[in-house]
Design brief:
Elements (H helix, E strand, L loop, with lengths): L1 H29 L9 E7 L3 E3 L2 E3 L3 E8 L3 H29 L8 H17 L4 H62 L5 H17 L2 E6 L2 E6 L4 E4 L2 E2 L3 E4 L5 E4 L13 H37 L13 E2 L7 H4 L1 E2 L21 H9 L8 H41 L3 H36 L1
Antiparallel strand pairs: 1-4, 2-3, 5-6, 6-7, 7-8, 9-10, 11-12
Length: 455
């Protein structure tokens, strides 16, 4: 009787284990297309042998739990590449926008420089023609407006990046709070000996979303994951979250502060936030500095050429261009100072009909500026830098994207659900369930026969 009862118990345990395995398999199949779902596998272990006198029998099987299949090292690599990819994407999108302000559109600086130069050439051959004089004035105004529009466009992108900094910090804080809450739930489930695979999947999805916003470092503690920014400022420690803050700096731009109020702006890297800060504080200011220098040096050179000549009334030439005293606003503020075309200093000696100074005016467009190149070449260099940066950003985004795709595919082979594999498991566990049921029915039949023999 003891032997049959032991066998019956083994069969019942096997039936329960097979049922649990079938449940895990069916859950995998049901969530095959669920974003963030991690494949689950039943954890089986052999029970201790049963010894009764000289009789030794197997102890059967136990279902220790359901385990989600994860490769932590691979997950960390994906988080790093996700931060890099979103940083590259943000940079590439912004560079495409910035490049539009420099492309040839008929109103860009390169085109208006060319028109201004052509107008001066026509004026040189026909200085007494009022239409030619008016054309030079109009071309100068168009050139100034091109500088204004380009500078304002760059400043607009910088303002967008500044707004994006505040918005991204708010998103980071929201995700950090949710991750901390999930850490708390996972700790409670773990303490109760329950499986937290579903909660862990939810947390992993949010952690990946967080890595899209900024570079993060992850470690584990007894209370759950510890997440910090790249410089070590805490975002999540177990069930506690630590909010970042934003505050306007002396330049009016939003600075990022940690939970203790320390300025960590310069150390933020990766993700949307890192790219936004780099674009706002480095890339765009660099272009603006080059553009402002060009506007200042060119306007100064042209005004100096004006001063060498005389206008139609014999007066010494006055400034043709007006630029702000603050060099940082030169491109945005440059304008044509004169409104009367007869104020153009065409004459070299003050006599009527003289056009000797037009050559000096033209030379201001072709001669070397203090920075070392002609205005056209200086602008071409700036245009090349912008185009090259845009191309590099796009290439970088594509390269990181390919690497991330490879890692994601590899993760899918480890943690993702294979319908073919699960179909095989379904048959395997179904067969095990049927076999266990057969054991039980057989033992029950034998017990009935034994009882009948006794009676």
């Amino acid at each position: 009787m003891g032997g049959l009862n032991t066998t019956l118990l083994i069969g019942m345990q096997a039936l329960e284990v097979a049922q649990g395995a079938l449940s895990a398999t069916s859950n995998n199949i049901a969530n095959a297309n669920t974003v963030g779902y991690t494949r689950e596998i039943p954890q089986l272990s052999e029970n201790q042998l049963s010894v009764s006198g000289s009789h030794v029998s197997g102890g059967g099987v136990s279902l220790d739990g359901i385990k989600s299949v994860r490769d932590q090292l691979l997950n960390i690599q994906i988080l790093q590449q996700t931060a890099a990819k979103n940083s590259a994407d943000t940079t590439s999108a912004a560079m495409d926008q910035l490049q539009n302000f420099f492309t040839t559109s008929g109103n860009d600086i390169a085109t208006t420089f060319s028109s201004f130069s052509s107008g001066l050439a026509q004026l040189s051959s026909n200085s007494s023609n009022s239409a030619s004089q008016q054309a030079v004035l109009a071309d100068g105004q168009a050139l100034a407006r091109s500088f204004n529009a380009t500078a304002n466009g760059l400043t607009g992108v910088r303002s967008q990046m500044d707004t994006q900094v505040s918005q991204t910090v708010a998103q980071i804080n929201s995700l950090s709070q949710q991750i901390a809450q999930l850490n708390g739930k996972l700790s409670q489930l773990s303490a109760a000996g329950k499986d937290g695979g579903t909660i862990q999947d939810q947390r992993d999805v949010m952690v990946q979303q967080l890595s899209q916003l900024t570079g993060i470092t992850i470690s584990n503690s007894s209370d759950g994951e510890v997440i910090t920014t790249g410089n070590g400022s805490p975002l999540v420690m177990g069930s506690e979250s630590y909010s970042l803050q934003t505050s306007a700096g002396t330049d009016g731009q939003q600075r990022v502060l940690d939970s203790n109020g320390n300025d960590i702006t310069a150390s933020i890297q990766g993700g949307k936030l890192g790219a936004s800060i780099a674009l706002r504080d480095q890339t765009v200011p660099g272009y603006l500095t080059q553009l402002n220098t060009l506007a200042t040096e060119f306007a100064t050179a042209f005004n100096a050429a004006q001063a060498k000549g005389f206008d139609a009334k014999g007066n010494v030439g006055k400034d043709f261009f007006s630029i702000p005293a603050n060099a940082a606003g030169a491109a945005a503020g440059i304008s044509v100072a004169i409104t009367d075309a007869t104020k153009i200093a065409m004459s070299s000696d003050g006599s009527s009909g003289s056009n000797g100074n037009v050559a000096n005016l033209s030379a201001a467009l072709t001669g070397a500026l203090p920075s070392g190149s002609s205005p056209a070449d200086t602008y071409s260099n700036l245009l090349f830098n912008v185009g090259n940066d845009a191309s590099n950003a796009s290439t970088n985004s594509s390269a990181i994207g390919q690497n991330l795709l490879q890692l994601t595919n590899l993760q899918g082979s480890v943690s993702g659900v294979s319908i073919d594999e699960e179909a095989t498991n379904l048959i395997r566990f179904q067969t095990a369930y049927e076999a266990a049921a057969r054991i039980i029915s057989t033992i029950q039949h034998l017990n009935s026969v034994t009882m009948n023999m006794v009676s």
